[in-house]
Amino acid sequence: MKNKLDFIQNLDKDIKEAVTENFYNQDNELVLKINLKDLKKICLYFFKDLKFYLLSAFAADESKNDGNKFKIRYIFSHSSIDLFIIIETETGGTFPSLSEEIPALNWYEREMKDLFGLIPEGHPDPRPLMLFPENYPQDIQNMHPLRKDYPFNFRPEFKKYGEYNYNKDVKGDGVFNILVGPVHAGIIEPGHFRFSMSGEPILQLEIRHFWKHRGIEKIAEGKTISEALSLAEKISGDHCVAHSLAFLAAAEKILNIKIPENALYIRTIYAELERLLCNINDFAWLFQDAGYSFGAQETFVLKEDIMELNKYLSGSRFNKGILSLGGINTCGNIDNLRKNVLKEKLSNFNKRYLNLKKMLLNSSTIGERFEETGYINKETILDLCALGFAARASGVPSDTRKEHPYLIYDKLRFNSKVLKNRDVFARLLIRFYDIEESFSIITQCLNELPAEDINKSGREYADNNVNNTGNNISKNKSKNDRCIIAKDDKIDAAQQLSTNRLRSWALGYCESQRGNIMHFVELDEKSRISRWKIRDPSFHNWQLIEFAVIGDIIADFPIVNKSLNLSYAGNDL
Amino acid sequence: MFNIIKTRIKEGIKTKKINIEDIKKDNIVIFNEELKNKLLNKSKNKNFTNNISVRVVDSGSCNACLHEMSALTNPYYDMERFGFKFVAAPKHADVLMVAGCVARNMYSALLKTYENVPYPKFVVAIGDCAMNGGVFKDSYATLGGIQDKLTVDILIKGCPPEPIDILAGLLLAFGK
Ligand code: SF4
User: Fold this and answer.
1) What is the pLDDT of residue A414?
2) Residue A428 · residue A370 · CB < 8 Å
3) Which of A359, A453, A535, B105 is the most exposed place for a label (fewest CB within 10 A)?
4) Does residue B86 form part of some domain?
5) % of chain A with per-residue pLDDT over 90
6) How far apart (Å, rounded) are the C-alpha atoms in residues A43 and A27?
7) Which atom in ligand 1 lies closest to the alpha carbon of residue B128?
8) How far is A471 from chain B (nearest CA, A)?
9) Partners of A77 in the beta sheet?
10) pTM, whole model, 2 decimals?
């Protein structure tokens, strides 16, 4: 399974026969077009036999072009080969549900049902997912917002439409339910949890999410790339760099834009700074929830210092607005001065972090609470296709930086640690490794940062294209701009040219602190978004919590929750 | 641990200084003209002096605003030195601090929380989303910004607003 290019040759014979068409959209994106009737066979072949991982599944409305048609795509990948398998099929209204066999598809299929009105036949739990029965009309045929004929701002009247039903009840002597949320006691995002308990231990947890469903995918339709980029920053605020990176990666692939070497390094630095910040933040909250205030406050101070460093580097405490199509905006540039400050600060942070780590590992209370709490089995991880450190703490390798190297990760030296302990403590240890790797990666990037060879490739690309159309105006303007990319208006001009387009869609992915982020971006002829599927790692990992807390006492729930620290906003979209 | 304590004792932490006179007012909008009066009456009641309890509700933010709010409790901003504190229940609160646009699914929960805050109550809206819904203004899944749904007394602009701005807004409005 090592060779990408004759991958298709080595598949089983009847699978090969079922594929009606295959082509490479990118050199690591293999598209297999199949008929709907073969869907089950082929998905199960990849998932069960070849042990591929499900990364995303989504529909797209193709009705405009011909008839009432929807395309459904399933994306699979494997940790040992840099290849994405995209299984593509068409349907008029129904498709076979695979949730029983591939539990990770559960939410995806319900999502398609809500947003497109496609019916997953045989789904074990076909309740609405994001269009709550209380707030959205369920009887109306046309309440399927992601269909193209649904006006993006149409709002049905706000009133009570129906009731929410819980999935399964636990019954028996002394069993009681505790309902929590959607508004929580702390400064936490909204989500609803129902614990079924008998005495102290939790028998069952049912989570209900999507309170913050804001319809990002619909809003984005018809927007230009730069408008969509600002939306990408609002998917999950603490991961704004990662989401923008993933989105831009896809857009740049479609438009065939080459990014200057220097900008690649800078993007990596920002991506790692974000990972560092989020890990330190989680680390602080774990201290806090275990009742260790001294450690928590000390870590919050460290977090605040990193945010202030971000502000110094880019003018924004979350590094918002530094990325742009083709490279980096001027505000995010790392010149010699900033480089030195960054180096100095990092060595200071590193020292303080090591002290904190030592303190935490020496504390017996912390050990008591974190060890043997919140077990997540390897089988659960594989079934739900969990991502990122949650998977790595349970013995399943999952790191996009290694599996599908992007930016300059193939040139960097780093490890992606896998542990076998499965508990909260293991997830904490994985964070320690991640933090240390982030420090080392940033240092490597800073040491090897190519001299500021301003915007060579980016600008040349745009200039050439502008020249082709006989429009020289922007070339004259280019003398003064100091950003590492071609200026916006030139890229915009380049976007208008479809000659350079090899494809209309692409996958954009990156490894955020929580795990793999997968974006699917499809552009129309005018380079406006026609379909954008966003998948935050939280979408996979939330379902883990239902399994992680079983048998634990309810007082441990905050710790188990924080040990995964998932995004509600990125999940709800 | 001793290393950390040693450094702390040596270096200390400089809590951010705020002077009411120096506050940049362009990010802070106070809608409620009567707010000051109300507060003056309120502060006659001894129980309320120097003690404003804040309840946070997220009705559809991207969570960056929440990060900034929780930063208010860290030693750099330490809002408790001015008597502001976050409380766990709306019944204990004087101020409802809301972030994000109003997501359709969250609207009823937001209203319930609002109703449970005892009178006199104030609403502080955090961030551009809360102002008018921001980019989510027209979406099928939202109902616009907080301003369209609740009477907002103080609005703090920014995406996300920095903690220092949030603190400044609170100070300005509650006249500490
Ligand atoms: S104002 Fe900005 S930071 Fe705050 S919730 Fe809205 S998008 Fe996020």
Assistant:
1) 84
2) yes
3) A453
4) yes
5) 1
6) 21
7) 1
8) 33
9) A53, A84
10) 0.87
Residues in chain B within 8 Å Cβ distance of A233 = 62
d(CA A329, CA A363) in angstroms, rounded, equals 44
Give a yes or no: residue B153 inside a domain.
yes
**Residue A385 per-residue DSSP state:** T
In order of A329, A380, A415, A422, A560, the CA distances from A394 in angstroms are 39, 10, 17, 4, 14
First to last CA, chain A: 35
Extended strands (E) in chain B: 28-30, 52-58, 84-86, 95-99, 122-126, 154-156
- Report pLDDT digits (tens) over A416-472: 888 888 888 888 888 888 898 888 988 888 888 877 655 444 444 443 333 333 333
Site of tokens 């939330």: A542
Asked whether A501 lines ligand 1 (CB < 6 A), one says no
- Asked whether residue B121 is assigned to any structural domain, the reply reads yes
Domain around B60? 25-173
Q: Do A190 and B86 touch (CB under 8 A)?
A: no
Amino acid at A361: L
Overall number of domains in chain B: 1
- Rounded Cα–Cα distance for residues A334 and B82 (Å): 38
Give A184-226 pLDDT, tens digit per residue: 888 888 888 888 888 888 888 888 888 888 888 888 888 888 8
Most confident option among A393-407, A457-471, B22-36? A393-407
Q: Measured between alpha carbons, how far is A61 from A63 in angstroms, rounded to an integer?
A: 6
**Closest Cβ–Cβ partner in B4, B13, B105 for A211:** B105
User: Domains in chain A and their CATH numbers?
Assistant: 4-121 (3.30.460.80), 216-572 (1.10.645.10)
Contacts of B75 in chain A (CB under 8 A): 297, 300-301
- Interval A148-154 mean pLDDT: 78
The answer to whether residue B1 sits within a structural domain is no
Q: Are the Cβ atoms of B64 and A187 closer than 8 angstroms?
A: no
Q: How far apart are the first and last CA of chain B?
A: 36
ipTM: 0.85
